[in-house]
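Team,

Forwarding the record for the chain on the shared tracking sheet. I've put the sequence and predicted structure together so nobody has to dig through attachments.
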Amino acid sequence: MTLRLLRAVRGAPVMFVQSGGCCAGSTPMCFPVGEFLIGDIDVLLGEIDGCPFYIDKRLDQAWHQEQFLLDVALGEPEDFSLPAGENLRFVTRSPICVSSDAPGENVLSPPE
């Protein structure tokens, strides 16, 4: 399911949070907008197709990435995250590790 389809099916916007917590620190969590309370430690990296993407400030500093690729992988989502589709979960990848012919619609760049 693409991000546009997920938003259409839900009938509402979604947001992403990449936490530095113990449970799913390397897995982006997808929530209906406003369902996850953003704290002082969360920073807005940018938007993907109009959906805000937040990351834990310490995790962002540790990873030192200019861009992330929001992708999907087989498996159920972590904890309370919305699924990316049937038996699909969201994952973040570094563009450095992705082939150059991968679709670019889900690349997250810093806000301008």
